[in-house]
Amino acid sequence: MTYLNDICDDLTTWKFDDIPVAAIATAKRALIDYFGVTIAGSQHPDVQGTARLASGNPGLATVLGTQVGAQPDYAALHNGFAAHIFDYDDFSIINHPTAPVAPAAFAVAEARHGSGAEVLRSYLLAGEIMYRIGRTCLPFTSDQGWHTTGVFGVLGASVAAALSAGRSTPEVAAALGIAASEASGLRGNFGSPVKAYHCGMAARTGIWCAELAGAGLQPSASILEGVDGFFQLFGGLEPNTISYPSSATWSILEPGFNFKRYACCSSMGPALDALLESEAVAALNAEDITAVHVGQSPWSFKELIYHSPTRAAETKFSMEYAVAAALTFRRADLEIFNDDSFLNNDQIRPLMEKVRPRVDEELARREFTSDAPVKIDIELRDGRSIHLSRDFAKGNVRDPLTDEQVVQKYRSLAAPVIGENRAESLLNGLRELENVEDVAALFRS
């Protein structure tokens, strides 16, 4: 047997009732968060092109935030893109796990009038397969400049689409093997809408892979672990050295998913928390500050590529802007990273010039993590210094958002777009998703 067959034979045999209750509960939290960020993201100007494409390909899958039904692949393209456009969606140690996978699972299931339990099973099993493959490859994938959400996301989306379509285990394996040749996404597109498109790209392509598998297309059986296979090219691993280790653990629980409070790269979350929660910082004026030294891990430093952003989309990947905005506006909400007027504020540029990010030697010695630990030293004109540090942001699995905080985030994002009544109806359906007989009904109320 090969890794491809082993992982699918192991995990796709799990029935819904075999999945831990805690994993299902966390999945529903993630999907509530997903629908909130996606419905809000559907209104973003950069996403309107995919909405028009979807409307030109009518079908039964809902294009979120619109009144349009589209073919599943076009709905998944739009919804995945919209889910990530604000960079406000959940994340894990390997990637943004929900934005590329949930759109594929829902689009295919809705077109088939599948149940909520089937969607939850597809989403969870696809995410688990994606995690186990992706974790084997990291940090090499990221170090090479790949956007791991695009690279690993298409793997998860292919499995989700195949399971939601009721494909057999060999067909799920074929879809996953085909998806291995579709894996892509370049970190050089961070700060542009193409970064968010990677999620829609993965979701759409995953559906195609599942359809091709159903039509009989077969990949190489050793495409993951073999010569010039996925693990060699995306993980830097020697061919034919990786075998599948079955496990009863669930990655959605351990190491878990993290939920965001800020609509920007997760590598800035701990810094924003440290600055916004400090009473000493709250008492400062911009003119009091002579320099702000920000020590980061090498992985966080690599992601934050805009040191002098020129548009709002770039501010999501700029530690200089994040620090200056927190010090200037004392907040870091959705507007701060999506409205050019904040970037063009007269106080921001002079303060950004005082922010000096660097790789911290101690943080560089730590193991690869998605936590984005940070050390901040603020030098003041009177000779004093303020020292702050934070190992992870609020919303991390070790300091999670409450259920009510997740719901509040959802309501704040969804209700302005679809109205309070529809937002509450959808929320209630998601809370009881395992009992929904036809997921299409979620979007028709």
TrEMBL record:
Residues 262-426 form the MmgE/PrpD C-terminal domain. Gene3D superfamilies: 2-methylcitrate dehydratase PrpD. Residues 7-236 form the MmgE/PrpD N-terminal domain. It holds the Pfam family MmgE_PrpD_N. It comes from the Bacteria. Belongs to the PrpD family. This is MmgE/PrpD family protein. It comes from Microbacterium jejuense.
